[in-house]
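Open question from group meeting: does this chain pack into something compact, or does most of it stay loose? Before anyone orders reagents, we agreed to write out a predicted structure and look at it together. Recording both the input and the output here so the notebook holds the full record.
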Amino acid sequence: MKRRDFIRLVGGVVAAWPLPAHAQQPERIRRIGVLHYLQENDPEGRTYVAAFLQALQESGWTVDRNVRIDYRWTGGDADRVRKYAAELVALAPDVILAAGGSHVGPLQQATHTIPIVFVQVADAVGGGFVNSLARPGGNATGFTNFQFDISTKWLELLKQIAPRMTRALVLRDPANPSGTGQFGAIQAVASSFGVEVSPVGLHDAGEIERGVTAFARGSNGGLIVTPSGLAIVHRELIITLAARLQVPAIYPFRYFVTGGGLISYGPDVVDQYRRAAGYVDRILKGEKPANLPVQQSTKVEMVINLKTAQALGLTVPQSLLIRADEVIQ
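Structure tokens returned:
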């Protein structure tokens, strides 16, 4: 055999040998999309994402090693929601994390196949996102954060902390499927508390300011802020208006109260993002969202700001202070 033919033969045999373990191909990088209702520079949004990433890492997923994450922050803008939903779907991720009920619908309109894990959704069935909580049946599943009985609790707690209240303004996002249901639940029990309720929209800062200012011209009023992306985006304005116009207000999340609000009653949002990472992990490992039941929030917390209560001339009942998970002095 000629030397040249021998080298060619040996080279072909070596090329056919399996690669040793240390020469295996790099680990496949999976792709996750995140569609969030907050603005990119919002510290609360960063807190949520950090909790999500930490829980992912605990399940073995590390950014730039075996997973890539594409973020889109809408700031509560409806046009951005539709635009960014389409953008994320075009990237063909393995799964999308959707924050807020107003973001799930546009994503499902854009794709019926890419799995969606949602968080901070009040009514997944009523919103048409799933067939049922136990058997979602489509390409979406996730975590709900409010049942309608919490809506009645807001009115009850606000009446306890402001017993002279006879009128309540309910801030809601009419575009949010849960907004109508939450207002209806409050309205259904309002007469039993001797309170008349009326709604105002959250389309933009101007509508919020006009609605709250006009309402505050009357006496014995209170404010109920229902959960939505727009309420959270405009939270500083809402808290400022309530303080300036001397209107007692109850909010759905803790950070409204740490930011100067009077009282909050609602779920531990960070916990939902941690749990959502678990569903994302299971989907990346082959499970289908149709078979993963929608889970309801298990942690509900009440936070009271005593400094704000004093500024409003209110004395917080001892019964509420005892029940509070946190009291801000």
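Observations to bring back to the group:
The first helix runs from residue 3 to 16.
The chain has a mean pLDDT of 89.
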